[in-house]
Design goal:
CATH class: Mainly Alpha
CATH architecture: Up-down Bundle
Organism: Thermaurantimonas aggregans
Helix content: 55-70%
Structural class: mainly alpha
InterPro entries: DinB-like, DinB/YfiT-like
CATH topology: Four Helix Bundle (Hemerythrin (Met), subunit A)
Protein name: DNA damage-inducible protein DinB
Radius of gyration: 16 Å
CATH superfamily: dinb family like domain
Number of domains: 1
Distance between the termini: 32 Å
Amino acid sequence: MHFKKPQPTDVPAFYQGYIASLPDGHVLNLMELGKKRMTDMLSSLEPKDLNTSYQAGKWTLAQVIRHVIDAETVFLYRALTMSRRDSTELPSFDENSWADSTALNAQLLSPSALLRDYLLIRNLSINTFSRMTVDELFFRGRASSFETCANDLAFIITGHEYHHLNVIGERYIKF
């Protein structure tokens, strides 16, 4: 594979911390490591755990997990679009609006349903990125008013999940 960890100047400031916090390693191996961590955490949850929040006004655990899944779905779509040399500018998404929507139906979600959804998108991400050529990985397009490419988005997906798993472990539940 021909992935290259993005330099801070390659990505917007709000993604730089996600990428910088990643341990060294091949991004697909880091995605697999993240999959194991998320799977272990979700497998240890009871349904009541999903409604917990570490502070009033903060997202519930269900909202955080759903956010990770939703963000990966959006980022993967962006990466696929760019890998197909499509220069259409892609819109941003309002993570808080999406989280509020999750709050309306989070009581219907079980740890096993979240795990199922998570594994679907994570396995699709790994499969999609593993099949990209160098040209597909590095074709630059625009999303949320910034320039990026599939390579950068692979690291953003991985770093975003890594960040949120650390937050979950520090503020919600120990796993």
